[in-house]
């Protein structure tokens, strides 16, 4: 058995969130690679995803990918989707793989080029409340539409052993607390603090929001990810330690290149 079928893991190909941290590459922005029961799925291939895959040690071979999921069409989540589709299909010569995406990434001003869509086996449109089969043992759902400027869905992955929840970009709203009950919770936290006047236009979570979420959901492990400038300045690792102390829960910060072995969750 190779490494991907032996151990379930999540590899963080980048932990940058929002425009400044991505533009300056203060953190990498390649998204996340999940290996679940031997099924390999890439979520949100932002700028530099392909480079991050190839330069990882050991290398993450895009031809081993079975699917790509876009949570939404923003550049920090989708900039490398076309090149990753090409890499997943051996340059477009081997028709394989599935793309899951909200419809607005395919329609007006599409982020997925029409010509690469022929390379893959099929495209499935994600919708609120949708449930999708990845393999005989792995499924995922997109439980609700997030409050974010484009059509955006978080994810719950279900495997024979674990549920993994991913709360991507969104403004806080109470329904989040009803839908992301995974053993592992990955949460995009762009802001460290939020000024009062920002509440009207900010479509991202802050640490205060994350505290409310983890206190309600009590995941076995929470992984903070997708950091904006205020989080970088506050040092995600320090923030995660502080939040762990305050809540009594296991909370860690993702780092570029971090491989989280799911076997540690039981
Ligand atoms: Zn984002
Ligand atoms: Zn976004």
Read across the widest sheet, the strand sequence of neighbours is 6-5-4-3-2-1-14
| Domain module tally | 1
Helix-strand category: alpha/beta
The H-level CATH homologous superfamily, spelled out, is Ribonuclease Z/Hydroxyacylglutathione hydrolase-like
Poorly predicted parts: 1-5
What are the salient characteristics of this protein?
266 residues; 10 helices; 24% helix; globular; seven-stranded mixed beta sheet; alpha/beta; disordered N terminus; 14 strands; Metallo-beta-lactamase, Chain A; binds zinc ion
Any overview of this molecule?
- The protein has 266 residues and is an alpha/beta fold.
- The protein has one domain (3-131, 138-264): Ribonuclease Z/Hydroxyacylglutathione hydrolase-like (Metallo-beta-lactamase, Chain A).
- Helices cover 24% and strands 24% of the residues.
- The protein has helices spanning 3-6, 19-23, 49-55, 75-78, 81-88, 114-117, 176-179, 207-217, 229-234, 236-247; strands at residues 9-14, 29-36, 39-43, 67-69, 98-101, 122-125, 130-133, 139-142, 155-158, 163-167, 184-188, 221-225, 251-253, 259-261.
- The strands form two sheets. A seven-stranded mixed β-sheet has the order 6-5-4-3-2-1-14, with helices on one face.
- Strand 9 and strand 10 (163-167) form a beta hairpin.
- The chain is globular and about 50 Å long.
- Residues 1-5 have low confidence and may be disordered.
- One zinc ion (ZN) binds at residues 72, 74, 148, 169.
């Amino acid at each position: 058995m190779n490494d991907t079928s032996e151990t379930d893991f999540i590899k963080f190909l980048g932990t940058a969130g929002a425009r400044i941290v991505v533009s300056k590459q203060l953190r990498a922005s390649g998204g996340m690679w999940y290996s679940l029961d031997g099924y390999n799925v890439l979520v949100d291939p932002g700028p530099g995803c392909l480079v991050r895959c190839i330069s990882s040690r050991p290398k993450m071979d895009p031809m081993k990918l079975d699917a790509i999921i876009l949570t939404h069409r923003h550049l920090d989540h989708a900039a490398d989707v076309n090149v990753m589709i090409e890499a997943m299909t051996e340059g477009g010569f081997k028709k394989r793989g599935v793309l899951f995406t909200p419809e607005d990434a395919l329609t007006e001003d599409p982020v997925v080029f029409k010509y690469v869509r022929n390379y893959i086996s099929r495209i499935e449109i994600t919708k609120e409340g949708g449930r999708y089969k990845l393999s005989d043992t792995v499924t995922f759902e997109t439980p609700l539409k997030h409050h974010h400027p484009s059509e955006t869905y978080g994810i719950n992955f279900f495997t024979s052993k674990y549920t993994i929840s991913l709360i991507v970009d969104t403004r806080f709203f109470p329904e989040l607390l009803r839908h992301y009950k995974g053993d592992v919770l990955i949460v995009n936290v762009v802001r460290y603090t939020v000024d009062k006047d920002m509440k009207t236009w900010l479509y991202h979570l802050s640490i205060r929001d994350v505290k409310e979420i983890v206190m309600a959901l009590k995941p076995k492990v929470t992984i903070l990810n997708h950091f904006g400038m205020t989080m970088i300045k506050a040092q995600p690792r320090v923030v995660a330690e502080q939040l762990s102390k305050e809540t009594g829960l296991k909370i860690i910060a993702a780092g570029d290149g971090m491989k989280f072995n799911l076997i540690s969750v039981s």
